[in-house]
Write a sequence for this structure.
């Protein structure tokens, strides 16, 4: 069922739809999803009585049901298996802009997670669900708002952000997404160019309700500044060039250059080339002995054995598409001096761990970013639309990494195999409801072996 804004009779009616959810947050018996709706729907829309602000506003309720089963298979750690099932809700309200040369508006998002099945011995830390003692929390919720202003094709956003740029990708790999707090400016006023810049100071993990400072995996000290900026240049419809830079104060400075080109071969399909290069060096405290001794360090092997970040990474991938078929072959290399790093609060308590990387090797169990690692990978995907079954897709991928550096001098290897099956209902009452099965297997000399399954149901209901 969908209620679109074009069907609303008057502005007052639209406000009425929002304010129906205006119950006090402290009401003891009010369901959590309604409390979230209170903030996301009514807390802002009724405060600005501008026609464009309301006319262009919309709200969606996204629901995700996730069964997560991760079995480590070996090693001394206990428990060796995480098995949990949960339901997530995201109420996402986005206003339009007020009239005038500079339009202003506000976005708001309320998130709620409900544990359906877990238990002591099957809950390993905060992999998917926040911890309540040794067990999983029964439910958790959070709220975030973003003020925005727009002049022509330039937009300023302040508050809750979910960046998806090469130097930082907000993770959405579990029930609820990771979010950040800060400011972002993006401009598309110059044809074929997108300029992006900003600064972040806090993060909220995908299985947490607490904001923390920023760090890398292994770092126990929090940084309160991550600066980023970049340019996307659309040279032509088929060629995109990118440059981005990021600085996590007291940890690292990172530069990225990328190229994406699609070659149309007509009846013979198409060939896509994807080239990526990262250069990452220590910054501030991580570059000094005293700073590293305080906890400004990166995990994993480093050439000096001291946790200093010093890394180059490059990758090249080529995808050939013909009909419903897509075959990808690629290679990635990490330099020998340290692991590849981006923001990850996994070593800061409060369940803030988990991250996503702008890498084709960032998969279900491994990401193939260890010092010295050289990874070859292949993926085959098929879209069953070509066989008359629209909405059904299947993918299989295999990755193998070697030359992993260790303090003993003995190089290590690892591999991963992933299967995925996706189906989206194309029509009827449940149109756009998506079903996903993910299956991954990894075998590694550098970490514990693992087997993982994820069953996911996604559905988004437009509210207005």
């Amino acid at each position: 069922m969908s209620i679109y804004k074009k069907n609303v009779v008057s502005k007052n009616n639209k406000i009425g739809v929002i304010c129906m959810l205006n119950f006090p947050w402290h009401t003891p018996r009010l369901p959590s999803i309604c409390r979230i709706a209170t903030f996301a729907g009514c807390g802002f829309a009724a405060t600005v009585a501008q026609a464009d602000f309301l006319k262009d506003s919309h709200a969606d309720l996204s629901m995700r049901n996730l069964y997560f089963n991760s079995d480590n298979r070996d090693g001394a750690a206990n428990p060796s298996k995480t098995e949990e099932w949960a339901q997530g809700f995201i109420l996402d309200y986005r206003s339009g802009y007020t009239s005038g040369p500079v339009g202003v508006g506000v976005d708001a998002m309320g998130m709620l997670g409900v544990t359906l099945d877990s238990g002591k011995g099957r809950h390993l830390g905060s992999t998917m669900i926040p911890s309540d003692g040794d067990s999983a929390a029964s439910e958790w919720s959070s709220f975030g708002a973003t003020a925005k202003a727009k002049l022509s094709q330039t937009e300023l956003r302040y508050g809750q952000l979910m960046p998806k740029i090469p130097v930082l990708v907000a993770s959405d790999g579990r029930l609820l997404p990771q979010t950040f707090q800060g400011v972002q400016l993006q401009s598309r006023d110059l044809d074929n160019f997108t300029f992006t810049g900003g600064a972040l100071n806090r993060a909220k993990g995908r299985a947490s309700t607490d904001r923390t400072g920023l760090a890398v995996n292994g770092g126990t000290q929090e940084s309160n500044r991550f600066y980023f900026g970049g340019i996307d240049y659309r040279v032509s419809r088929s060629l995109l060039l990118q440059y981005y830079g990021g600085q996590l104060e007291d940890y690292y400075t990172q530069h990225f250059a990328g190229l994406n080109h699609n070659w149309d071969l007509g009846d013979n399909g198409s060939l896509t080339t994807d080239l990526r290069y990262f250069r990452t060096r220590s910054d501030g405290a991580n570059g000094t002995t005293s700073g590293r001794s305080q906890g400004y360090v990166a995990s994993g092997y480093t050439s000096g054995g001291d946790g200093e970040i010093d890394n180059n990474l490059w990758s090249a991938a080529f995808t050939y598409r013909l009909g419903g078929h897509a075959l990808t072959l690629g290679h990635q290399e990490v330099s020998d001096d340290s692991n590849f790093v981006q923001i990850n609060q996994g070593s800061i308590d409060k369940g803030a761990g988990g991250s996503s990387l702008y890498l084709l090797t960032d998969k279900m169990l491994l990401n193939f970013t260890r010092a010295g690692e050289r990874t070859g990978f292949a993926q085959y995907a098929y879209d069953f639309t070509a066989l008359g079954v629209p909405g059904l897709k299947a993918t299989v991928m295999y990755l193998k990494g070697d030359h992993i550096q260790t303090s003993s001098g003995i190089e290590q290897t690892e591999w991963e195999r992933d299967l995925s099956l996706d189906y989206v209902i194309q029509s009827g009452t449940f149109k756009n409801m998506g079903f996903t099965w993910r299956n991954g297997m990894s075998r590694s000399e550098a970490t514990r072996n693992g087997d993982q399954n994820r069953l996911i149901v996604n559905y988004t209901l437009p509210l207005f």
Observations:
- The longest helix spans residues 32-45.
